[in-house]
Fold this protein.
Amino acid sequence: MQFRHLRYFVKIVEAGSFSRAASLIHIAQPALSKQIAELEDEFGVTLLHRSARGITPTAAGETLYQESLKLIRQVDDLPAIVRSSQGEVQGVVCFGMASTMAPTLTGKMMEICKATLPKVTLRFVTGDSESLREKVSSQVIDLAIVFESAPETGFAREVLFRQRLYLASRKQGTMESSTTLAKISQLPLMLPTPTNVLRKAMERELAAAGLHAEPIAESDLFDVVLSGVETGLGYAILPKADFSDVPGHQSIATVPIEPPIYLTACLITARDKPLTRAAAAVEAQLIGFLRGQMGEPAFKGAEWVDAEP
């Protein structure tokens, strides 16, 4: 087996077809098919399902795909790691964040890194906390800020701050100063999917109060939820109180939930892979920036945690 076989295999899985992958990596399709056949012979298992709909990995193929991603990432990082071991910090840092944080963090972090780490390139990834954990665990990204409702194991983690949850709605007339779980349970809610950390926290709190909420729609995509709220379709529970930094959604209003419900924001990295110098430098800049933002409108309802309880 040669390393290029793994690169080819990953490209086929991501492209979903031999012809598309062959075009992307500039190799003849028969030659590409032959190399994958050699790979399957070497492992002694079928790696790909071939059908009229395209190519999908088998269970063994999915395992090889995930492990190959780690190896490819490590090999691709080697030049920057070696160069940055001496002199100025440089390299590419893949930084993940929960979608609700993206409007506040992306622009400012680019500005900070441009000024303090000019040879470091940031590669941003957004998504729900569960998908970000999977990406950190598989070493697809270097570090991520995620929300937790309870401590998660399996990662190197640093608790940053706890963020209060708010009920979001379209601005209309006179708004109440707060709301309760009893009132929320009667509203048309747009909630994340059942595996989402916020959904789990809300269901736990509702159940403890003897209440239940049936969503009118589910989505883990921040923009989808905001669009539903913006049009007046329903309400949402979000770890964000101020939307002045979210273009096109300034007409969304929020009220705090009483009694308060919090999610904890943590910085996580892979436990078995030390950060590169570049990633460690970005981590330090990020923590410094976030600490200084407590009390600002974009972080309304956030409280810095200096030590785990």
